[in-house]
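Dear support,

I submitted the protein below through the web form. The confirmation email said the job was done, but the results page showed an empty box. After a refresh the structure appeared. I'm attaching both so you can tell me whether what I see now is the final result or a partial one.
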Amino acid sequence: MQDEYEQQADPTTLPVTPTVALSRIGAPQAAWEPLLAALRPGAAATADSIRTAAGLPGELATDLAADIEGFARVAVWERATIRREDGVVLDGGFWRHRDDRPRPLVVIPSAWGAPWQAFAILAFKLSLQGYHVLAYQPRGFFRSGGFIGVCGEEDWRDASAAIDWATRRTGAEPTKVGFFGDSYGAGISCMAAAHDPRVDAVVALSGWSDLAACMYGNSTRRIRAFQALLAATKTQDGQTIGHLDAATQALLDDFFVHRNMDGVTAWAAVRSPVTHVDAINARRVPILIGGHWHETLCPVNQTLDMFHRLTGPKRLLLSIGDHSGAELPGLAGLPNRVVDEGYRWLAHHLLGEENGVDTLPQVANEVMFTYTTVPLPVPITVPNLPPISRLIVRPADVEERKAWADVTGSTERLHLKPASRPDFLHPKDGELSQGVAATWERPFTAGADAGFTAAENPVTTGTAEVYGAPVTYRTRWFDRQNAAVWKTPVLPAAKSVRGTPRLHLTFTPSASSATLVAYLFDVNPVLGTARIITHEPKTFLDVTPNEPITTDIDLQAAAYDIPAGHRLMLVVSSRDQLYADASIDRTEIAVRSTAADPTYLDLPLS
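What the results page shows now:
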C-alpha cells in the first residue's frame, strides 16, 4: 500500500473549471497555482517568476517571493492523503514546520465546490505565522472520495481525522488546534468545535448556523440559492466535481418539489451548528463569525440567532455584500479587514499573543455603501460578477458595538396608511409615517411578478456591492398592480437603520396559500433611483380563503444610512424569483389596517 505521506499527483496540474455560481470562493487558480508550484522541492521562486505566473504587481510579487524563500528555510509543503476507516480517502495539502518544537495546528476544510487549493494562500500565510496548517477537501468533492455529507456526522469525524493525521505526521500533539473555514468549511469548523474537545478556537466566515432556516425560513423555500449550490457540484462544461449519494439527492428532490418537508428540516437540523451550540458552550470555544447583510445562501438573521446563543468568547463581523465576498481579497492573499481579524483571533487563542482581541467589542458592523467611489475610465471585468465601473477610494464605515443589543438605540414606529397627498404617477402608493389611520385596505394581484427582485443572482449580485457596484432600482417601474407600495415623505434628516426591521400587518388572501415578500428601499426622489436595504419572504399554507391573517415579518437585519432628502419605501409583493412562490396565480391579496389593530413598520435606528 502506498504510504499515506508519499507525494501524490502534482496538485498544481489539477484541472479546475469551477462553476458559475460559486466559483469565486477562495483564491483564484491563477493565484494559488504558481504558489504551490513554487513550494515544490527544488523549485526556485523569484519575483520575476511569481509576477509572470500569477500576474501580480511587482511589489506584491517581490513580497511573495521573499515569503516563499523564508518559508522554505523553516518549513515544507507536502500533499496530504487522509485515509478513513470506511475506505474514503480525503485529499489535501500540509504546511509543516521542520523543527520538532510543539506548535499549534490550524485545519482548513475547503468550501463547497471549491478545491482545497483555493485556500492554499491562506494556509501558506498561516504557516508563516507559526502554525502547522492542514487544508483538506471534504468528502465527495474533487479528488476526495465518498459522497457529500452536507456537514453530516461523517464530515464531523473527517474533521477529527484531519487532526489525527496532522498529529501523526508531525510526531507530536499540537499545543492547540484551530479551524479556519469559509462557507461550507465554516459549517464543518463549527461542527468540529462541537464534537472534538481538541478544538480550541474557530474562525467561521460566511457559514450557516441553521441549515433549515437557510432552506425553508418562514416556510419559504430558498429555491435559487440551493439551485446554485447544486450547480456547484458540476463544472461549466458538465464535469461532476461533487458527488451526492442517493439518500441526500432524494431529500433535496423532496425540497425542490415541496414534499416531506418535515423530513427535510429534520435532516437539516442535524447539520446545523445552532443545534449543537450547547456542546460548543460547554467548553466556551472562542468563535469569530463573519457574515453579510445581503446573504442569499446564509441569511443574516439565522447567523444572529447562533451568535446570541454562544456564551464563550465571540465576535461578529457583518459586512457589505453576499456570500464570501467581503473576505475574498484576504483569501487571495491581499490585506483584508475580515481575514486579518481571523489571523488575530487565532493568534490570541492559539499562540497566546496579547493582541487585544479579548478586549474588542463583540460586534463590528460595516455600514452599507458608506464607501467613497470614483468612476473608472474602463470598467473592470471580473469573472461571475457584473462589470465593475467604480473604484473604492475610501472604505465603508465600520461601527463597533459592545453587544448586538447595543446596535439598535431606538425604534420608530411608522404606520402604513393611504397617502395624504397622492403621487401623481402612482396614485395607489400609500404613506409611511407616524400616527394611526382609519380603516383602509390595499389589494394587489397575487402570484404575479412585480418587475423587480431582491437579487438577480444568488451570491454574485450582492458580491458586486463589495466592489462599489450595488444594484440600482427604478422604482417608477415597479408594477403597482402586482405589489403594494408605501413611502415616507422626503426625509428632513438622515435616518440610520440599525438592526432588524419588523413589519406587522393583516392581510386577506383569496386563495388557500400565499407568499408575502416585504422589501425596504432607500429612494432618491430626484433621480427616481433606489437601493435595497433589506427584505424577507414569508409563506402561509393551508389557510382559509378570504379570512384575514395577522402576522409579523422580521426583515433581515441591516446597517444602512438613508440620507436627508431621500425617502424610505416599503413594498409588499407575492413573488420573487429567489423563492418558491405559494401564491396562486392571478388571485388577490389585500393588506388591511384598522384603528384597533393597525399595520405598521417598526424601524430600528441607531
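Response: this is the final, complete result; the empty box was a page-load delay. The radius of gyration is 25 Å.
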